[in-house]
Amino acid sequence: MQSTLTEPRFSTETGVAARIAAIATPVLADLGFRLVRVKLSAQAGTTVQIMAERPDGSMSVGDCETVSQALSPVLDVEDPIQAGYRLEISSPGIDRPLVRHSDFERARGHEARIEMAAPVDGRKRFRGSIEGLEGEGSEARVKLRRTDAKPDEPADVWLKLADIAEAKLVLTEELIRETLRTAKAAAKQRGGETEGSQAIAARHGRFAGEPKPPRPAGPKLGRAKPAPSKQPFKASRKPKSN
Questions:
Q1: b/e map of 73-88 (b: 16 or more CB within 10 Å)?
Q2: How far apart are CA 33 and CA 36, in angstroms?
Q3: Which segments of 138-172 does DSSP mark as H helices, in order?
């Protein structure tokens, strides 16, 4: 299956995170990116993490900045969260979540942790190497060669993508090497950022702002300013003085 902006995710959000995902998806698509995940946490008050990527799986520090600057005012207008929050745009990272058929295609041969929504042969959690895929749409399945199988359990298992609650790559040396090779190739193809900045993005790519004040009383926010180079890309947005 070819990676595209419109390729559906089999793993989606609920509640407020689902509303944010619905707002973010068309904004990302207009910029040439697609949504990986929306996650809300209690870090720094409330943090809204929006994980995004290009269809080829790459996401540079500059890409994170572009998305943040485009998405932040849209979220301000739509106002999906009534309380103040911190917006963080990030790349999927090396040990990335697997949320689409193409994610598993690119991850062939690498190790993953998978949790199913319902038990398969009496268990929900599996760990092993991604060996293959078959089928399309809701019938698509991934073959996992298990590294967690007990002596009396089969080494291989087929898991339906539609029934996966969460899947994530396991960080290994080979995965790191391949990710950095891919990032370098993507940077050369676009004629943009250097290998160094792509490597940083693969590990830490993000663009974060300070907590947004509750609306409607909150002051207007200024533009983001880049952090020093060779560090995870962050930015602070401070209220303008009266």
A1: eebeeeebbeeebbbb
A2: 10
A3: none
